């Protein structure tokens, strides 16, 4: 190997300005590219290229049975696929907005729940006084290493109409719903129990008016009972994973900080609010972002637990995209859904980044 | 940074090389061949790949036995695969340009594959085509060309649990012949953890009641949508009434995956299923005694739905001649009868069906023929529409029937227009 490779990079720009050095730096750049090229080629081949191909497919009316890149049978239809999903009234748009509604409720419940739960778990297992800490850490982390497919299947049995959960509920005198067959939105179920609305027969202003092909009654119904069960499952399986991330960050907080705070006479709540949480901010952002992205991409649970049933209330855009492609042979529309989903995730992450930004005055960097 | 320009030039070169590599890779990976697929030598042993969507072990074993018999007779090798998710695996292999040579084609996907040019229309090469039921052949004919042979068929029948029937104090004279009688016996059978009639909520089952009222989703040649007809409303309202009275339930209400499961477990005294029930009952609930009756008559007389798959041959297959030969072998009368013996598939050949039903009079209700037997909807683009119809039917108990059918009418008309 040539010596230039092993030599460290010039520390300053001044050194690089000498002609002899300059060539060497150029070669170093080349060698550097050479070293990263396997990763670049792999990423390009298996990420960038398919993304570009999918972008092209999303502009086609392609049934998956011809070559979409040589012209021919797959007709170029411009933004028609996107128009079907967002503008034109019809089944495509109704299904897509239904899936968006479902997933929005999923995100709204899952992201805060999983963050709070995993942070609490991390705070608990971070206590130095607790006995058998590693046992608890293992127990809490365990659901994360189990495959979602397996957990979902077990949940299907647990939450059957005559399953274990309902058996348990019946001991305390509650008649549980038929969880995975119940398409009623929980909000209406609660209001219906109070006698305010009749969830089975929507009527009035909310049922008569709508937006993007769904009536306001459907928009506001909240996640269905089946969807809530899925949210519960996801929270349980994912919290361990985020707990580990929080735990690592908690152990990074210098003990001096806590001691100094203790000297100042803060109580536990103040310690959490003014010392621990600010120190966790970057990790909090990481966890929120991961949870957000993950929850806009729910697929495996939906696939196992009912493929959108009951009443399309567990349909998610990720699953709809798959269904449009592989079941309805409309790959163009499937790709279009994937790109809209991509945009939604980007926007959500951007908003979240803005909300969690370092407030002025405190930013030292 | 002074070496900026050098680095940038290098970057650009590398980017170019990278892009060229990617394009080359993409060009190589492209498995599509829009031209005519080259046929391999027709003499000498050939290797065929067969993909089936099996209803269970009984079907898999029966097809395997048939395929082995073919191997022995022809000298060709056949690899039999059972799909987990047939539609996905097929469309993936079509997209990859490397489909199996012979495969099951679901009637709901038929139009899509045929119009997409993935099916090799071998109908004209079959000599004794008159022996197949014309109604079934019609399902797999598009633009005047017969694409594939129906592999078997089955109409829906009303299966009755003999033990529960007797326990309710009913006799053979009480077998329901009309809707009123059906609702009546369902009421007598309901109670003690048993529901009179349990079916899945799909239109593929309760649609039978629409035909008994004289309606259906489309007209006979599937050129017009007739979903919002008063006959369909009447059919669904009858089902709704039985649900409302508690004498009928959907499978999800009794924690069953399909009608046969509820029926076998004894949660249902009656169910509406086709010939596949025989194989499933023999495998999972061999002790349950049952009788299969024709569907009761509605206001418009008898009516039921018939289902079938066909043996598709891939247009992209390199062994089409051998593939058609295999299909010819598998659709022989004695092969079809063997399949029937194994898992209750009624032969699609009229001569074989006659022979099979003569030996199995208890399955006569599944083998009915007549112009009141409604074939599956095979119009292109209807899969999604009917999926939505099924979703709406889940809540049939509380829903407004005419609203469901009006939605179906709108969606189906849009699909029909789009795919004309």
TrEMBL record, chain A:
Bilayer disposition of the protein: Multi-pass membrane protein
Gene Ontology CC terms, in alphabetical order: plasma membrane
Family classification: Belongs to the binding-protein-dependent transport system permease family.
GO BP annotations, alphabetical order: transmembrane transport
UniProt organism field: Streptomyces hainanensis
PROSITE patterns: ABC_TM1
Keyword Nucleotidyltransferase (UniProt): no
The protein, known as: Sugar ABC transporter permease
Region ranges (Disordered): 1-22
Entry superkingdom: Bacteria
Domain called ABC transmembrane type-1: residue spans: 100-352
Regions crossing the membrane: 30-57, 104-126, 138-159, 224-250, 271-296, 335-356
Primary localization class, coarse: membrane
From TrEMBL, chain B:
Any single GO BP term: maltose transport
Protein family according to the UniProt entry: Belongs to the bacterial solute-binding protein 1 family.
Molecular functions (GO terms): maltose binding
Pfam (any one): SBP_bac_8
Protein name listed in UniProt: Extracellular solute-binding protein
PROSITE patterns for this protein: PROKAR_LIPOPROTEIN
Any one annotated GO CC term: ATP-binding cassette (ABC) transporter complex, substrate-binding subunit-containing
Signal peptide span: 1-26
Keywords, ordered alphabetically: Signal, Transport
InterPro entries for this protein: SBP
Species of the source: Streptomyces hainanensis
């Amino acid at each position: 190997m040539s010596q230039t490779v092993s030599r460290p990079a010039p520390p300053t720009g001044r050194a690089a300005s000498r002609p002899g050095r300059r060539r060497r730096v150029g070669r170093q750049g080349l060698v550097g590219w050479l070293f990263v090229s396997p990763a670049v080629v792999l990423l390009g081949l298996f990420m960038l290229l398919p993304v570009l191909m999918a972008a092209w497919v999303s502009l086609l009316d392609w049934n998956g049975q011809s070559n979409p890149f040589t012209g021919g049978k797959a007709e170029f239809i411009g933004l028609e696929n996107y128009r079907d999903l967002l503008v034109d009234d019809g089944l495509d748009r109704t299904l897509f907005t239904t899936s968006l509604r479902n997933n929005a409720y999923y995100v709204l419940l899952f992201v805060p729940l999983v963050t709070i739960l995993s942070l609490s778990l991390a705070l608990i297992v971070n206590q130095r006084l607790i006995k058998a800490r590693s046992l608890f850490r293992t127990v809490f982390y365990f659901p994360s290493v189990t495959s979602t497919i397996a957990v979902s299947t077990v949940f299907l049995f647990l939450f059957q109409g005559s399953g274990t959960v309902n058996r348990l509920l019946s001991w305390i005198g509650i008649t549980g719903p038929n969880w995975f067959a119940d398409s009623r939105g929980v909000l209406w179920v609660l209001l219906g129990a109070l006698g305010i609305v009749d969830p089975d027969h929507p009527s009035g202003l909310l049922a008569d008016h709508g937006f993007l092909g769904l009536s306001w009654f459907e928009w506001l119904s909240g996640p269905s009972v089946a969807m809530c069960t899925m949210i519960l499952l996801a929270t349980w399986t994912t919290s361990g994973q985020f707990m580990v991330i929080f735990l690592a960050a908690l152990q990074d907080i210098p003990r001096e900080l806590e001691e100094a705070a203790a000297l100042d006479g803060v109580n536990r709540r103040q310690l959490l609010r003014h010392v621990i949480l600010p120190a966790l901010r970057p990790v909090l952002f990481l966890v929120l972002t991961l949870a957000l992205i993950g929850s806009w991409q729910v697929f495996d649970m939906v696939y196992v637990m009912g493929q959108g049933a009951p009443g399309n209330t567990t349909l998610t855009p990720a699953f709809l995209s798959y269904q449009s492609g592989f079941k309805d042979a409309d790959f163009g529309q499937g790709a279009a859904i994937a790109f809209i989903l991509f945009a939604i995730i980007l926007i959500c992450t951007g908003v979240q980044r803005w909300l969690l930004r370092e407030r002025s005055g405190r930013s030292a960097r | 940074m002074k070496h900026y320009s050098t680095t940038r030039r290098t970057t650009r070169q590398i980017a170019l090389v990278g892009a060229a590599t990617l394009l080359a890779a993409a060009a190589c990976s492209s498995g599509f061949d829009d031209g005519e697929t080259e046929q391999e030598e027709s003499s000498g042993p050939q290797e065929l790949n067969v993909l089936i969507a099996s209803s269970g072990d009984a079907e898999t074993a029966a097809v395997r036995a048939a395929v082995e018999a073919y191997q022995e007779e022809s000298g060709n090798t056949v690899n039999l695969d059972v799909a987990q998710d047939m539609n996905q695996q097929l469309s993936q292999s079509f997209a990859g340009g490397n489909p199996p040579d012979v495969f099951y084609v679901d009637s709901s996907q038929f139009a899509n594959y045929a119009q997409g040019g993935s099916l090799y229309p071998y109908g004209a090469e079959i000599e004794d085509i008159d022996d197949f039921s014309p109604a079934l052949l019609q399902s797999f004919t598009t633009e005047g060309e017969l694409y594939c042979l129906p592999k078997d068929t089955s109409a829906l029948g009303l299966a009755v649990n003999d033990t529960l029937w007797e326990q309710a104090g009913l006799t053979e004279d009480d077998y329901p012949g009309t809707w009123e009688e059906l609702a009546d016996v369902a009421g007598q059978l309901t109670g003690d953890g048993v529901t009179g009639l349990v079916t899945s909520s799909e239109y593929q089952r309760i649609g039978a009641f629409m035909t008994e009222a004289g309606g259906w989703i489309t007209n006979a040649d599937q050129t017009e949508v007739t979903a919002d007809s008063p006959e369909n409303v009447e059919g669904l309202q009858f089902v709704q009434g039985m649900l409302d009275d508690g004498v009928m339930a959907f499978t999800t209400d009794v924690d069953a995956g399909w009608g046969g499961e509820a029926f076998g477990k004894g949660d249902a005294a009656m169910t509406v299923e086709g010939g596949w029930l025989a194989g499933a009952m023999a495998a999972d609930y061999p002790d349950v005694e049952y009788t299969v009756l024709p569907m009761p008559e509605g206001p418009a007389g008898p009516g039921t739905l018939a289902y079938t798959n066909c043996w598709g041959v891939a247009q992209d297959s390199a062994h089409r001649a051998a593939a058609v030969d295999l299909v010819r072998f598998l659709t022989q009368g004695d092969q079809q009868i063997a399949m029937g013996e194994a898992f209750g598939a009624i032969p699609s050949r009229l001569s074989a069906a006659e022979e099979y039903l003569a030996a199995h009079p208890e399955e006569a209700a599944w083998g009915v023929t007549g112009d009141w037997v409604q074939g599956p909807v095979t119009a292109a683009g209807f899969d999604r529409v009917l999926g939505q119809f099924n979703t709406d039917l889940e809540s049939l108990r509380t829903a407004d029937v005419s609203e469901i059918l009006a939605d179906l009418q709108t969606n189906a008309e849009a699909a029909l227009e789009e795919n004309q």
